[in-house]
Write a structure and sequence with these properties.
- The protein folds into 4 domains: 186 residues, no CATH class; 187 residues, no CATH class; 217 residues, no CATH class; 138 residues, no CATH class.
- The protein contains 23 helices and 20 strands.
- The strands form 2 sheets. The protein has a 6-stranded mixed beta barrel with strand order 2-3-8-5-7-6. A 6-stranded mixed barrel has the order 12-13-18-15-17-16.
- A hairpin with a 2-residue loop joins strand 2 and strand 3.
- Keywords: Cell membrane, Membrane, Transmembrane, Transmembrane helix.
- It is a multi-pass membrane protein.
- Belongs to the ABC-4 integral membrane protein family.
């Protein structure tokens, strides 16, 4: 009998039951979907790097050596797999687009760092000048299959035909400025060609300058140093320090810290609405429960009766929560994977996470129903049978004065909100959280862009040049001056390792002049380095647990030296460390030489340098800044998805709250109709209630949005670079305006429902029961 009563009660609820199921599924499912999305993105990352066989170690040389030399080193290191390549920097030209290029000559049958072809065909030995182009650059440059791409490599001109587009585990986030942890998509033209075709074009038969290999498990940390000893090493990159993997790991770490914050807001909003809705459901059964108590039913049986409708709603709500979890996860994971560049998104459908979403939905629903039901059962049967007491609300004098000058419709709406403080406060808080989350995401994006601009604003260089081989400082200056540069700062740059007492990290050591005018450091503490001193980035100082005045051990391929931290710098190049030129050049084995330049030069000079045989790569400050903003815009897609979801949940809450409030007050509105209130007055009442709640929620959303953005900005700072919050009205205005528009739309819908009421039946139900 109790089950039949529960089914009858749910059926009698009609639209109210549907709204409750939607609320249960949307609130809990959204929080679960964001957690599942993180699971899917991690699976997509792992599958990509596994399927394309990202190498354990990449040894890049500054000049070519015989292939047999590198093959012998791989054999001596007991490599389980090894392949040699010929990698050359240059310039790519297509139509009016000119971009720094990295041309990779590799075997079409390569087993390591394989290409994931996304369009066209892969490399072929039968077409030595058939190229596969990195997909992001191809999209930006407008390349199509069959196009000709002109490559300038030192003094050689090499036209190639585009056979296909691909993603590579080594160049997933190809960037012209790899020292910046934030990549600039499409800023570097990565072109893959058959190795023998490239070697023939460059007259470098049998010569290579790159070795990728896999090492046996538990290899000694010194294996890489032993393998590269005596070779003209430009860089040694272990798998975990590979640029694409390093960025995606850092980015996923940031995303993982997002999940609890965003998921908690969605869960809190959903639970609040579930609790308020179930309270209404239980209160609607007050007379029936009182009657059952009077008839002799034991309180546990009556409690079960009150909970059965909640359970009947919880089951379809849990099923919907599972569906919403899957849908939100697919949407968020696909958006994220597209922004980063994973060619395929792996959907895991984790049984544990889906089961958790269903369990939370059921548990939250039953928990929300237990408290009001238990409070009702504590009443005497006769008191419960009388139904809910009619509220006689005497508004405070201030409210009477504030509403007395308005019409009766506005006065009624304002007083109606004040006489239901618990419902009104809960509604406002939930809306404030939903709006605040959307505003915080907007604030985060704007602040990220502003922080990028602030860091770039202090720089005076316009062009960064990487030389194909070290030159004397005088020769490097002369090269830049001949090309038309108006200011030149030669630097020595190379890989190294920093060690504090309990930590270590890889770095790029940069030797600067005593008073750099072009590459200027944005110091947050300390001062510029003098002899024997060094400046760390904020990220490096944090990972090493160091502050100014502390010693740090600097190790390169040519030696080790203990230096003192003189300052901490805020920079987008989080992996760089700065020392006086003399100290850095000595540690890198480049005394009196430079292998990179910072210039102030017009665009024509930049183009001239790009074609010089002694120049490996040229990048501009404007391109770096634009590339970082492009990436932020792509990642904005993910933020916009979360923003749309938060506004969607907030809209559902608002519509449900107004609809359920209307159902609870059908008798009141029927009485107003009987007193002659028409469409205009009814709409004024409902619009006033909706707008007042939304405006108060919008005001609370401003501090709530800043408080939510604070930990989110901190998580990005841990993974990328420090972000200072810069709130502006537009960050909050869009979310608040959308919420207000939704409030008006929901109020208009509720007005139509009021006008369809059976006045006599509704008044009779209110007064007689």
């Amino acid at each position: 009998m109790l089950v039949r009563k529960a089914v009858r009660d749910v059926a009698a609820m009609g639209v109210r039951a549907l709204l409750l199921v939607l609320v249960i599924g949307a609130g809990i499912g959204t929080a679960g979907g964001i957690s599942l999305a993180l699971h899917d993105v991690r699976a997509s990352r792992d599958a990509f790097y596994r399927d394309q066989s990202l190498a354990d170690l990449d040894v890049r040389l500054s000049r070519t050596v015989p292939r047999a030399t590198l093959a012998a080193r791989a054999t001596a290191a007991s490599a389980t797999a090894a392949e040699t390549r010929l990698v050359v920097d240059g310039l790519a030209v297509h139509g009016g687009d000119r971009a720094p290029a990295e041309v990779v000559g590799m075997s079409p049958q390569a087993h390591l760092d394989r290409l994931a072809v996304t369009g066209g065909h892969g490399l072929s030995d039968t077409e030595p000048r058939g190229a596969v182009v990195e997909a992001e650059y191809a999209r930006r440059a407008g390349l199509r299959i069959g196009d000709t791409l002109d490559l300038t490599l030192g003094g050689h001109h090499l036209p190639v035909r585009v056979r296909g587009f691909a993603r590579s585990p080594e160049y997933l986030l190809a960037t012209a400025n790899p020292e910046f942890l934030i990549p600039q998509p499409g800023s570097l033209a990565v072109v893959f060609v058959p190795e023998h075709g490239l070697a023939t074009a460059l007259d470098a038969g049998g010569q290579v300058n790159d070795l990728v290999l896999n090492l046996p498990p538990r290899s000694s940390p010194s294996t890489a140093q032993t393998l590269s000893a005596g070779l003209p090493v430009a860089s040694v990159t272990p798998r975990e320090e590979q640029y694409s993997l390093r960025f995606t790991n850092a980015d996923l770490h940031s995303f993982a810290l997002f999940v609890p914050v965003v998921g908690s807001v969605f869960a809190a909003v959903g639970f609040l609405l579930i609790g308020l809705s179930l309270r209404r459901v239980v209160q609607a059964q007050r007379r029936e429960l009182g009657t059952m108590l009077a008839m002799g039913y034991r309180r546990p049986a009556v409690l079960a009766t009150a909970l059965l409708p909640a359970a009947a709603l919880a089951l379809p709500g849990a099923a919907l929560a599972v569906g919403v979890t899957i849908g939100v996860a697919r949407l968020v994971a696909h958006t994220y994977a597209s922004a980063v560049g994973f060619p395929v998104t792996v959907a895991t459908f984790s049984p544990a996470l889906l089961g958790q979403a269903a369990a939370v939905a059921i548990g939250a629903t039953l928990t929300a129903a237990v408290l009001p039901a238990w409070m009702l059962l504590r009443l005497q049967p006769a008191e419960a049978m009388r139904g809910e007491r009619i509220v006689r609300f005497a508004p405070p004098r201030l409210l009477r004065r504030a509403t007395g000058a308005t019409g009766p419709a506005v006065s009624y709406a304002s007083r109606s909100l004040a006489r239901r403080p618990v419902l009104s406060v809960a509604t406002v808080l939930s809306l404030a959280l939903a709006i605040g989350l959307g505003a915080s995401l907007n604030l985060l994006i704007d602040s990220t862009n502003r922080s990028v601009d602030e860091i770039f604003a202090g720089q005076r260089w316009t062009t960064a040049v990487g030389l194909t081989h070290p030159q004397t400082v005088a020769a490097a200056r002369a090269l830049a001056r001949q090309a038309g540069a108006t200011a030149v700062e030669p630097v020595a740059k190379g890989p190294g390792v920093l060690r504090s007492p309990n930590h270590s990290t890889d770095t790029v050591l940069v030797g600067l002049s005593a008073a750099p005018r072009l590459q200027r450091l944005h110091l947050t503490s300390g001062r510029l380095p003098a002899a024997g001193q060094i400046v760390l980035s904020e990220q490096t100082a944090s990972s090493l647990k160091l502050r100014t005045g502390r010693p740090v051990e600097v190790t390169t391929s040519t030696g080790t030296r203990t230096m003192t931290v003189s300052g901490i710098a805020r920079t987008l190049a989080g992996g760089q460390t700065y020392a006086p030129y003399a100290d850095a050049a000595a540690l890198l084995g480049l005394p009196g030489q430079a292998n990179a330049l910072y210039l102030k030069a017009p665009p024509a000079s930049t183009r001239t340098l790009g074609a010089h045989p002694g120049v490996g790569r040229v990048s501009t400050l404007a391109t770096a800044r634009a590339g970082m903003h492009d990436l932020v815009r792509e990642l904005t897609g993910l933020i916009n998805v979360l923003l749309a979801i938060s506004l969607g949940v907030g809209a559902l809450f608002l519509v449900s709250s107004l609809a359920l409030s209307l159902l609870d007050r059908q008798g009141e509105f029927a009485t107003l109709r009987a007193l002659g209130y028409g469409r205009a007055r009814i709409m004024t009442i409902l619009v006033t209630e909706a707008l007042v709640q939304t405006l108060i929620a919008g005001a609370l959303a401003v501090p709530a949005g800043i408080l939510l953005a604070w930990p989110l900005a901190d998580t990005i700072g841990q993974a990328w670079f420090h972000i200072g919050l810069h709130p502006v009205p537009s960050d909050f205005g869009v979310a608040i305006a959308l919420a207000m528009a939704l409030a008006v739309a929901a109020a208009m819908h509720s007005t139509r429902q009021v006008l369809r009421l059976n006045i006599a039946a509704a008044v009779r139900a209110r007064l007689i029961g």
